[in-house]
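Before surveying the methods themselves, we first show a specimen of the format, giving the amino acid sequence and backbone structure tokens:

:::
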Amino acid sequence: MALLPVLALTACGSGDTSGTTPAGAQASLAPTDDPVAAVRKVDSVAALLPADVRKAGTLRVGSSVGFPPGAYYPNGQDKPSAGQDIDIADAVAKVLGVKLERQDASFETILPALGSGKYDFGTGNFGVTTERLKTIDFVTYINDGQGFAVKTGNTAVGERVTDLTQLCGLTIGTGAGTTFEATLTAQKGVCAKAGRKPYDVKVYSENAATLTALQQGRIDVIMSTINGLRHQAAQPASQTTFLGEFHRLDVGFAFKKGSPLTKAFQAAVNELIKDGTYARILKKWGTSASAIDTSRVNPPEHT
């Protein structure tokens, strides 16, 4: 069985697929209901795809697979992945009448590969940020964001992180190429301004390694996605406590700038919202609180 990894790096995230076993992790079985099974092609939405895509009938997706509820391996890396991101992408593909050629990839490699044409789009809980919008087009499908967690019993930070000065003097673990890393790096001067010792940031490419570092006391805090950390804290063996939401972000499918696919994907997500499939997928994965009312193309970053 795949072991529960630490990070839910959404826009966040690190899509590490390492099989490294974090101490205290446990198996996380996938829910058995299948709201995607009943989804059918919607001709008016499929017509929004470019003619060459409709003719080919396939799209290549770079998929970051790391941990529930976003995307993970409930039965090992040699078996199909599962999760909220997997279900939504599969449902969109069915509405569009195309098949997905899913290629697992590490989180930090997907966005650069879109520009080269290696993938038609990417999934991995990619958060919409001002910086990313310069080079990437997004079609939103959920609202998630940034949060923190500690080892259960650690009271150094408090019950909730609302200001990064609460982290001064501590060591924070997060994923490579994520919004978490960018936020921590950009704000590193807040502690000096407050006359306090700076926080230290340790970046991990393996999700499991981050949780192990927390449990072994090599880091004090994890910064990752809200939904992922909340799910992780609900697993007793992980021995973590979620410290609440820090900053919300829209999350979307990622495309190269100027992609002709965005309008079709937006219409497909909105079709799933309208027919109730979207709500059933989020309910399945326990992420209903992150639902959006309508999909948007390139919305501004939440402030």
Q: What stands out?
A: Confidence is low (pLDDT under 50) at residues 1-27. Residues 15 and 64 are 4 Å apart (CA to CA).
